[in-house]
Specification:
By secondary structure, the chain is α+β, with helices and mostly antiparallel strands. The radius of gyration is 50 Å and the shape is elongated. One of its GO terms (cellular component) is plasma membrane.
């Protein structure tokens, strides 16, 4: 209100002028009245002729201008929008001295038209006059909008009929702060409110250092706001698209150090800011204080954007290779950029009017340069010329409008759409073309690189061959060392396990005796120590096996929920012994059936749960399974305990072999530090990952993420049916070679149940005769037999000619060590089975070797307690009863033979009896006795002296096993 009051108090004759001559500097007066305006006028005249010529070539046609002034406009009839070009009168005040009253009484008023409302750059003041009335019986409010948004000073005067002094004065234009304007909009908007039957006369004073183009309209307030929103939305969408393209070009330019993309990004950014300033959005939302910056921004930024875009297109075409055009364009570019500085800080009207004319010349030269480059065969010139065609036509029309040659309807129409879309089209085509150039250059560089590499390959081949020979030599040495390590581990395992089995057997026997006090405590300590030592040896061997070769997962469908429950059930006894709560939490959204390697997953979980129980003294261990939040079809398994925890700085090292948190842990809890290393190797072999989180004194949480895609539950049945169906669909001929009648009886019974044809041989010679007589599909052979051993028999079979030489052979042994397995492989066997023989494991192994694939060796030791029930289910109670009876007889007979042979010094007879005892015990599921007998057999075969302790331990275990079998035998007979 202070600005309005200043103008009102200054009087009717002087308060309405802000560009009086006396307020201008001498330099500005000369610029307006001296030689520079005359020069600008001449340039303007030349530009007019050039623009008319170019526009006629572009096919533009003139439009007729009409003007009509009505006596008045009824506000009540304007329900939406009314253009006022034919309803207003216009007066040009060349000196700018007229006050509102003087202008209203002036005799120079003429009817307004589109042509008279478009004046271009001029120092004149323009007055608009219109009459309005309310022909309704209700008060009416309408908004009078005066465009364009770039007008610097717009003043509104309202007169009562017959009065020459304004009853209301309002200020607008971009020099006025937005908050001081009657309506906050980019355009100058003045509200007109009339009572029923009231008439009024409105005078508008327009003066601007920018190009003068006046668009007057009458709106209902709601219609104005509705029309303003789509314009803003379209502008934001197009500006956002242009900004995205600029960012894309900037990233490519910086990444590839490409000057075309950098220039494109700079030009696009300048074009975006220019468009916001030209459309008034910069003033509407950012520079709301108005003033000189808002006025000068369109002219300055327009010059910069024009130069950057033309320079970018010229570089893309390759005009910089044409010296004369490149120098000409660079010279004009420098002049226009200098003009932008003058427009920013000097006489804005004169500078912009001159640079606008220069832009016409610059654009024409640019077009000629592009045409010449097309003539010279520059491929991109045609692309740029065709893509920039709409933008060039629009640009010339726009410059004609700015210079006042033709009205806005000839030039820009919807300025937002045409300006942005045409520029975006040009930039899009240039960006695509430049990317193609870069790809072509990259392909050529790759071809050159390939040629260079081929040239260098021949030069380096000799060095590579020499280095390869050195590496092969080193590889052979490493293989020998690894083989020596494996042999050492196998030997040491056997040498340590043999006395340990004897020791544990003796301890087990002692525990069955009545012991009191400290003696029983000492026996318990010895048992725990021996079990820990065996576990340590087993861990070392497992890690050595994994280190020698990466485990190959065997993917099959399995029941995840059942596997988790089995793991918890297996470890629950250890948890109860330590009075620790072992819980299982399974998310119900997990699929019941998944695809993966159940054996490896079970080993991982058993190791983690075993670790958790070992390092937890009080509290609980929780096993949980949930869907993984990162990967699809992955499952997250967690084992969390309330144990001693691990310091955070040692978590990563805990997964390294033979590493524990500190030495006190090893002394207190024991172990080798291999459990987590094995878990990591197995997890990575299954394509997953394992992490840990721990807090000392609060516990640890180990998290395993594995890809376990869900599958149909019927898949398990299909696999089982496939395994069983193979046997049904294809009856195999199987040769069982074993000197023990009991072993042949069990194997033959299991094979008969599956529908196979079984032939038996009591020794290697008989087996060879049967094979020569009639080939079979698979051979099951015991390793230790009188005459030809199992290993020797395999070598003879492989030496046979014809089909018999390739028959699959499976070893049957109770002594599964690394050395035994290696001997079997070297001899040419296809697989092995450890006693006792589980029915499903027998069938699975036969199917695998007959199909030509290695059998999956699962850790079935946990299932041995279920051997007799499983055998009874397969063969029936009567057959199992007979097996138990035969096993009992074999144990008693072998025990007596061992004792008698040792007494008379017949080591070979004792060794054979020990072998028979190990086999018989193994087939009956008597694991401790089988292990002790096998250890005794090895000692008798390798050492000249045998400790009495080994013999007594084996005989004691045999006596106890016989007692157990005597207890089982009547029970089975009763079931029958």
């Amino acid at each position: 209100m202070s600005i309005i009051s200043e103008y009102v108090r200054a009087g009717d004759k002087q308060g309405t002028h802000f560009l009086r001559p006396e307020r201008l500097s001498p330099w500005q007066v000369r610029m307006m009245t001296g030689s520079l305006p005359a020069f600008a006028a001449r340039l303007r005249s030349a530009a007019i002729h050039l623009l008319v010529f170019v526009t006629l070539i572009a096919g533009s046609s003139s439009c007729s201008l009409a003007a009509a002034v009505e006596d008045g406009v009824d506000l009540a009839r304007v329900t939406d929008h009314l253009a006022l070009e034919q309803s207003l009168s216009i007066l040009e005040d060349r000196d700018g001295y007229l006050s509102a009253g003087e202008a209203l009484r002036h005799s120079g008023w003429v009817a307004a038209s589109l042509r008279t409302l478009t004046q271009g750059f001029t120092s004149s003041v323009f007055w608009l006059r219109g009459a309005f009335y309310n022909g309704s019986d209700q008060p009416v409010t309408r908004w009078l909008s005066v465009g364009v948004v770039r007008l610097e000073d717009v003043r509104y005067f309202r007169f009562a009929p017959g009065e020459d002094k304004p009853s209301e004065t309002l200020l607008a234009g971009n020099r006025t702060p937005l908050d001081s304007r009657p309506v906050k909009a980019a355009r100058s908007v003045f509200p007109i409110t009339l009572a029923p039957g009231e008439r009024t006369i409105v005078a508008l004073r327009v003066q601007s250092r920018s190009s003068v183009s006046i668009e007057a309209s009458l709106w209902s307030p709601a219609s104005f706001q509705e029309a303003d929103a789509p314009d803003l939305l379209i502008e934001m969408l197009l500006v956002g698209s242009m900004g995205t393209m600029a960012l894309f070009s900037l990233v490519l330019g910086l990444a590839r150090r490409d000057r075309v993309f950098l220039a494109l990004a700079a030009g696009a950014i300048a074009e975006v800011i220019y468009d916001l300033a030209f459309q008034g959005f910069l003033y509407r939302f950012i520079l709301t204080g108005g003033g000189d910056v808002v006025l000068r921004a369109p002219g300055v930024l327009g010059l910069i954007a024009h130069v950057l875009l033309c320079t970018m297109a010229a570089m893309f075409i390759g005009i910089d290779r044409i010296a004369i055009w490149w120098r000409t364009l660079c010279t004009f570019s420098a002049i226009l950029l200098a003009g932008s500085l003058f427009a920013a800080f000097g006489d804005y009207r004169t500078t912009v009017s001159i640079t606008t004319v220069l832009q016409v010349v610059y654009e024409a030269l640019w077009i000629i340069a592009v045409l010449d480059s097309w003539r010279r065969g520059f491929g991109n010139s045609r692309l740029v010329l065709l893509a920039s065609g709409p933008a060039v036509v629009r640009f010339f029309l726009y410059l004609g409008h700015i210079l006042g040659i033709w009205p806005a309807s000839w030039s820009v129409g919807s300025e937002i759409t045409w300006n942005n879309l045409s520029i975006m089209l040009l930039l899009l085509f240039i960006a695509i073309g430049r990317l193609r150039e870069i790809e072509s250059a990259r392909d050529k560089a790759q071809q050159d690189l390939v040629a260079f590499q081929e040239h260098e390959r021949e030069r380096l081949q000799r060095a590579v061959d020499e280095r390869t020979r050195e590496l092969q030599t080193a590889l052979v040495a490493a293989g020998e060392a690894n083989r020596a390590k494996s042999e050492f581990l196998a030997v040491m395992s056997h040498e340590i396990r043999t006395p340990m089995n004897g020791m544990l057997g003796a301890i087990h026997l002692l525990k069955s005796m009545p012991l009191q006090g400290k003696v029983r405590t000492a026996v318990n300590v010895a048992e725990r120590t021996g079990a820990a030592m065996l576990a340590t040896i087993g861990g070392i061997l497992d890690f050595a096996k994994i280190s020698d070769s990466k485990p190959e997962p065997s993917y099959a469908a399995f029941d995840l929920h059942t596997l988790l429950a089995d793991v918890v059930a297996i470890m629950s006894l250890r948890a109860e012994q330590k009075n620790i709560s072992l819980k299982l939490v399974v998310d119900q959204v997990l699929p019941a059936t998944v695809m993966g390697d159940a054996d490896l997953l079970r080993q991982i979980l058993l190791n983690l749960v075993g670790n958790a129980l070992k390092f937890t003294e009080t509290g609980e261990v929780c096993v949980s399974a949930t869907p993984d939040s990162i990967h699809v079809d992955w499952i997250r398994l967690e084992v969390e305990d309330t144990g001693i925890g691990i310091p955070r700085d040692r978590l990563d090292r805990s997964f390294e072999p033979f590493v524990q948190a500190d030495s006190s842990i090893a002394r207190r809890f024991g172990g080798t530090g291999l459990g987590l290393a094995i878990c990591r190797r197995l997890t990575e072999a299954m394509g997953g990952c394992i992490t840990a989180d721990s807090q000392p004194g609060q516990g640890s949480r180990f998290q395993v993420r594995l890809p376990l895609p869900p599958t149909d539950a019927a898949e398990i049945d299909i696999q089982a049916a496939a395994q069983q169906g193979d046997a049904i669909r294809k009856t195999l001929s199987v040769l069982v070679v074993d000197d023990d009648e009991n072993n042949r009886f069990v194997l033959s019974g299991l094979l008969d149940v599956k529908g196979h044809r079984v032939r038996e041989a009591a020794d290697g010679v008989q087996a060879l005769a049967l094979l020569i007589e009639q080939p079979v599909d698979v051979v099951l052979v015991d390793l230790e037999m009188p005459g030809l051993s199992g290993i020797e028999l395999v070598r003879y079979i492989r030496a046979l000619g014809g089909k018999g030489a390739t028959v699959p052979i499976v070893a049957i042994t109770a002594n599964v060590t690394a050395g035994v397995v290696e001997r079997c492989v070297q001899a040419g066997m296809d697989g092995y089975l450890s006693k006792p023989i589980m029915p499903e494991e027998l069938q699975r192994t036969i199917d695998a070797v007959c199909a030509g694939r290695p059998p999956a060796q699962s850790d079935s030791q946990m299932q041995r307690d279920d051997f007799l029930p499983s055998l009874q289910q397969e063969l029936g109670a009567e057959t199992v009863d007979r097996l138990v009876g035969q096993a009992l007889a074999a144990v008693e007979r072998s025990t007596a033979t061992i004792e008698a042979s040792i007494q008379r010094g017949d080591r070979q007879a004792a060794r054979r009896a020990a072998h028979q005892l190990a086999g018989a015990a193994g087939l009956a599921g008597l694991i401790p006795l089988s292990a002790a007998a096998a250890a005794l057999e090895n000692r008798l075969a390798q050492s000249s002296t045998v400790e009495d302790t080994d013999i007594r331990t084996t005989l004691a275990l045999a006596e106890r096993a016989a007692a157990d079998l005597r207890g089982i035998h009547p029970g089975l007979a009763h079931k029958r």
